């Protein structure tokens, strides 16, 4: 597979920070927070496979994502980085840190735990995306209206619609993500990617959205089994996306990790 797409958000000369986005996201979602973090780090944001501008492939597993990121690190000559992963990207980052600890100076996991999830909302969102008739679609705003029957959250409807792109000639719409592959992989992506004996002994920060239900108090002890030096910090006012919902507090916490 061709190399992953990335954005270099600045900070040349600072220690490298590599950011892995969540499900249905992309490097684009991290540009504002990433540029602010460039005062402290040299910030790179990646598009994971089947997302954003990165290549599409039928395989959509955490092992494949880790392999992609290692290949990207090698291509850019980055032997040792601070690795930040959010949601799905957090699971990929945890797996990479456990299997390639020599590449990770420190690990930052944003609002996700190494456990199995099942979110009915994800099923509804993917159903809405797969049901959308692209041949008759006129705009992203129209797509958001069509999503209303299945997706209650207006912000989520807007987020999903960011994955729609129009042909350069102004023609029809298409999905920028590999929708069939990601849809088929959803049950596997919700699973815990870590084996019971996998460990990362390096510095680890788990950043939790206080209004999110992704990481609960009872998840902390099991997480320390895999990450013995994990520290947990909560941003009380944030939901699942602290880099957007409470960006100032998020950036302050990440800058302090260095």
C-alpha end-to-end distance:
33 Å
**CATH architectural label of the largest domain:** 3-Layer(aba) Sandwich
> At the third CATH level, what is the topology name of the largest domain?
Rossmann fold
How many DSSP H or I helices? 10
Rg, rounded, reads 18 Å
Structural class: alpha/beta
Structure report:
It is a single chain. The chain has 258 residues and is α/β, with parallel strands linked by helices. The chain folds into two domains: 178 residues, 3-Layer(aba) Sandwich (Rossmann fold); 68 residues, no CATH class. Strand 4, helix 3 and strand 5 form a beta-alpha-beta unit. It is globular, with a radius of gyration of 18 Å.
Quickly list its features.
about 260 residues; alpha/beta; Rossmann fold; 2 domains; globular
Question: Quick recap of the structure?
Answer:
With 258 residues, the protein is an alpha/beta fold.
Q: Layout of helices and strands, plus pairs?
A:
Elements: E1 6-8, E2 16-20, H1 31-37, E3 42-46, H2 62-76, E4 81-86, H3 88-99, E5 104-110, H4 120-131, H5 140-147, H6 154-161, E6 164-166, E7 173-175, H7 179-189, E8 203-209, H8 220-226, E9 230-235, H9 242-245, H10 247-257
